[in-house]
Each structure stands twice: as C-alpha cells, then as structure tokens.
Write a structure and sequence with these properties.
Helix content: 55-70%
Distance between the termini: 69 Å
Strand content: 5-15%
Structural class: alpha/beta
Order of helices and strands: EEEEHEHEHHHHHHHEEHHH
Radius of gyration: 24 Å
Number of helices: 12
Number of strands: 8
Oligomer: single chain
Largest sheet: 6 strands, mixed
Shape: globular
Amino acid sequence: MIGTTKFFIGIDVSKPYFDVALMAVVNHVKQEIATARFDNTAPGIKLFEKWLKSQKTTFNEDSLIVIENTGIYHRLIWTFCSNRNLPIHIGNAAHIKWSFGIARGKNDKIDSIRLCNYAFKEADDLKATAALDPELMLLKDLISARTKLLKQRSGISVSVKELGNVNGKEHQKLIEKALKNAIEGIAKSIKNLEDQIKKIITGNQDFKQNYKLLLSIPGIGHVTAVYLIGCTGNFAGRPSGKELACYAGVAPFEHSSGISIKGKSKVHRMANKELKRLLHMCALSLIQHNQEFKTYYNRKKDEGKHSMSIINAVRNKIALRVAAVIKNQASYKNNYNIAA
C-alpha cells in the first residue's frame, strides 16, 4: 500500500513560522489535504518532522516538498530535507505565482494549499533542488555581507563629501575625524571578508574551476566571478544563456498587444539587481577598453541605437558567454578579428 502512495507538500515560509499543506495520493486518488503551522526554528522543525511521520509520509522519492525561494527564511527546511533525503523543489516565487493564474483570497494557509496543489500538478516537470551545501551558503553570506558593507562605506563617503561642499574647513575636519574610525573599520571588515571569500574559492575545486573559467571572459573580474558562483549556486542546473540573462534582468521582452498597444522592451522588476549592476560595470569596461566591443558600440550608435540599449545588448552578450564557458567547461576563446 505504501508503494502506491505519494505525498505532495506545499510550504509557505515566513520569518516567524511556516504553514504546511500535505496531500496524500493513494492509488492515484487524492486524499483530503492536511494543514499545520510550525515555528521557523530548530524546535519547530522537530515538530514538523514528528507531524510528517504521524501523516505516514515517506522520506524518499515518493514525496515532494515545494516552497518558494525566500532568500534565507527557508534554510532550516532545506537543511532538514537535505539531511533526511526528502526531495524538495525550491521554486522561483514569480514563476509559481504566475502558474496559479487569477487567485482569489490570500493568507499563509491558502498559499500553502496552492503550493501543495502546484506540487501535485507539476510533479513530473519539477526538478528536486540539490542538497544544501554549507560551504556555498557561507560563501553567499560572505558575499552578501561584503555588498552591504560596501554600500555603507559608499554612503558615508558620499555624505562626508556633500557636507564638505557646505561646511567650513574646521567644521568639516571635525566631521571627518568623527567618521574616520568608522570608515577604516568598515574597510578592515571588507578586507577580512574578502580574505575569507578567496579562501573558500581556492579551497573548493568546483568553485575554483568555474572561477577560472569566468575570469577568462573579457570584462569579468574577481568580484563578478565570485558573485556569479554565489548567486547561481555554482551554476547548479547549468542555466542557459537566456535563463541567466533573464535572471540578471538583461534580456528585454517586447511589450505589445495586437496592433493597439506597443511599448518599449523591458526587463522584469524581480531581476537580480546586484548581478545586473555588476554586468553593467563589466559592459562599461568592455566598451571603453575592449576593441571588439568598442567597435560594436560605435557601429550601433551610428545606426541610431540608444546608448542604454547598446549597453544592455553587451550585458546580454556577457551573460551568454558566461553560460557557454560553464556548459563547455572550457575557457573563453576570443575569435574576434580586429581587421574585420
């Protein structure tokens, strides 16, 4: 009987707790959905495991959990599933919500039931997410911490500079002296984080291999290479160039309807803004210092293209090259002929 029973579990996760909806399908017949709520804590996870066992849930490929990617709030559940060999699909929140169509009513319990039904309907197409890698999580946290500190340092520096434009010299010296230790402290913390990031990259053969491949691509430097490894889970699932470009928000889609509505091509608001920013910096560097892209930019300008449209095309090209070198596991080869 157990062999003919499958379990589909939808979990709606928030910071304080998570709601669970479980559907058992016995001999292809759906059973009534059971629901429960647990604290999003280690003790809450233990109660969740106890509840799953009370529902006769099997901890193997006959079960499937679906949750939305919440950034950090789903990590305890992900860790639990990884340790118990319980298949889990961590999906893109926007993609899952679009699949619901027009949905009336919303609360955490309803959302968990929708995720449960989604797991049942899409089970054949959903890929189980790889087990949580503690080293990868540490790398992502270090990258995130570095990004936050860089923004803080930049914010303080800009503020001090702006004050310098309106304050007298003595006044400004007091301000700069008061903030000097803070700026130096942040710089020291950034240096420590960078040392830890380099240690992880060089100490992990898989990270190190992809890191070297990324650096072979013109325009991509250390910071962008490390961020790409972190935000893609070291390219888990081997995303295509188009998928990576969409994720970074550099693959515009036409906005039109029949012959009456037509707007500018645009990127989705849920794109990874930090990756988009880094690719933007890479694109600017290429346009200034790389002959291939300098020629490309000038040619498109002569054709009447808008500067940002050209830059976005360059960002998209970089994303395509990233996916290609990772897929082929071979360094980028520049076949551009300057004479051409």
